[in-house]
Amino acid sequence: MRELGLIIGMRGSVERIAAGIAATMAKRPNQRVAPEDRARSALRERRAAYADTDVTFDVDRDATATESAQAIAAWLVAARGVRVDVGGDHPYPVLVRAGLLDQVGTHLGDLGWSGRVAVVSEPAAAARYEARLVRSLELAGFDPVALRLPTGEAAKSVRSVARLWGELAGAGIGRDGGIVALGGGAVGDAAGFAAATYLRGVRVAQVPTTLLGMVDAAIGGKTAIDIPEGKNLAGAFHPPDAVFADAGVLATLPQRQLSSGLAEVVKSAFLADRDAVAHVERALEPVLRGEIGPQVTTVALAAEVKAGIVTLDPRETGLRELLNFGHTMGHAYEAASAYRVTHGEAVAVGLVFASALSETLGLAPRSLRIDLERLLARARLPIRASFSREAWTYLQRDKKARGGKVRWILPRRVGLFSEVTDVDDTALQEAARLVRGRAA
Ligand SMILES: NC(=O)c1ccc[n+]([C@@H]2O[C@H](COP(=O)([O-])OP(=O)(O)OC[C@H]3O[C@@H](n4cnc5c(N)ncnc54)[C@H](O)[C@@H]3O)[C@@H](O)[C@H]2O)c1
Ligand SMILES: [Zn+2]
């Protein structure tokens, strides 16, 4: 076994092993040993061999063979990681693995980076992960400098980015090095925008530390800052050289933020296919519990969906619109809440609204919305809401900005969507009633 490769051990209680022996013996009635005695003596005789495993899994009393196999497969994937490639004019890899933070320097060296590199972070992510990332860069021969943005949307302001430009110049960042963005989507967007504009563009690598960053914001090359007139109104397409999604950092992410990222994961699964939905269905609770294997496979799945779409439409001229499933009403709801709900919470409500609209227009059966709601609820996301006058006003403004048309990405079934532009008010009100639920 040693010569063949990895040895995976499985550990069960004596009763569990005895039950297995009893089942085998039932097929060979001529053998007469008490299963429990047989289990104990085998464990004794094989003690040394069983100790020589690379990893041992505890098998629950009731675990089926399939469940045990899935746990092992998830562990193997987490240990080895997954690489997803984004294609197009500027191809780049998205690496997903636990422990990747310590390898960023080596990878950037392989990508041709050298010299002075700025690690741009915000206080919460920096306190936990900046030192490890800086160390990894130093070990790979870089000369890193750590710079900070404020936490949350405050990072995405003209003032924050202007200060960052100055600090990049002061630190002597040039075209040989680049910027490593360490943080959630807010840092990724602001540092990415600074990278797109400083010296008319320097290289950027994304090290997302939130689930939302890993499955969505860090992939696709869109960068932006906010202006008083609205969110993400100034920005640039500036794809990274690589995305390093280290699922290990999710261990410190608050549950509400994990749930928020899961909204985009559920969205991606519905855009993909039934297999993806089934995977997410199995993985939701383990991801929330912090199990690293399911976290890696789930990030990889959602990253693959986004990477696939972005590869075909890097500049958002068509297909990429699919990623806005749930976002038309989601954005309105998020803005109307004055950003008190997280992006993912708003998207959850927006996904339910879009499927309710499909239902109302006869494009999809009610069961689609029910399936979606079940997944979102299990991800601990809201599925019921009422839309304030502000939310409808926001939709109207969005309509004006888009040349008089509100575009809805509506599901027909898992993996099949339609873009619908002229939805009448009656249908919108009926969908809103479904999202409000019976109580209201
Ligand atoms: N460019 C894109 O394509 C794209 C896509 C989706 C979202 N976005 C943008 O992303 C932003 C939202 O991103 P977000 O949800 O990651 O929010 P965020 O960046 O504000 O991070 C959320 C919170 O988590 C904290 N945090 C981050 N990593 C942590 C960790 N590992 N442990 C503990 N705390 C941690 C942060 O301090 C912050 O308080 C929005 O500005 C949105 O516009 C961009
Ligand atoms: Zn989103």
Quick recap:
This protein has 440 residues and is α/β, with parallel strands linked by helices. The protein has three domains: 8-63, no CATH class; 81-302, Rossmann fold (3-Layer(aba) Sandwich), CATH 3.40.50; 325-436, Up-down Bundle (Dehydroquinate synthase-like, alpha domain), CATH 1.20.1090.
Structural notes for this entry:
Helices cover 51% and strands 17% of the residues. It has 17 helices and 13 strands. The strands form four sheets. Strands 3-4-11-8-7-5-6 form a seven-stranded mixed beta sheet. The mean pLDDT is 93. The structure holds nicotinamide-adenine-dinucleotide and zinc ion. Nicotinamide-adenine-dinucleotide binds next to α6, α8, α9 and α10.
Task: Please give a handful of descriptors for the protein shown.
440 residues; alpha/beta; Rossmann fold; Dehydroquinate synthase-like, alpha domain; 3 domains; seven-stranded mixed β-sheet; two-stranded parallel ribbon; 17 helices; binds nicotinamide-adenine-dinucleotide; binds zinc ion
Give the class-level CATH name of the largest domain. Alpha Beta
What is the count of distinct domains? 3
- The low-pLDDT segments are none
Which ligands accompany this protein?
nicotinamide-adenine-dinucleotide, zinc ion
What kind of assembly state do the chains in view correspond to?
single chain
Strand order of the largest sheet: 3-4-11-8-7-5-6
Kindly provide the radius of gyration, computed on alpha-carbon positions and rounded to a whole number of angstroms.
25 Å
Global shape? flat
Could you tell me how far the N terminus lies from the C terminus, measured between alpha carbons in angstroms?
63 Å
Largest sheet: 7 strands, mixed
Class inferred from helices and paired strands: alpha/beta
The string of secondary-structure elements, in order, is: EHHHEHEEHEHEHEHEHEEEHHHHHHHEEH
CATH topology of the largest domain: Rossmann fold
Count every beta strand, where a strand is a DSSP E run of 2 or more residues. 13
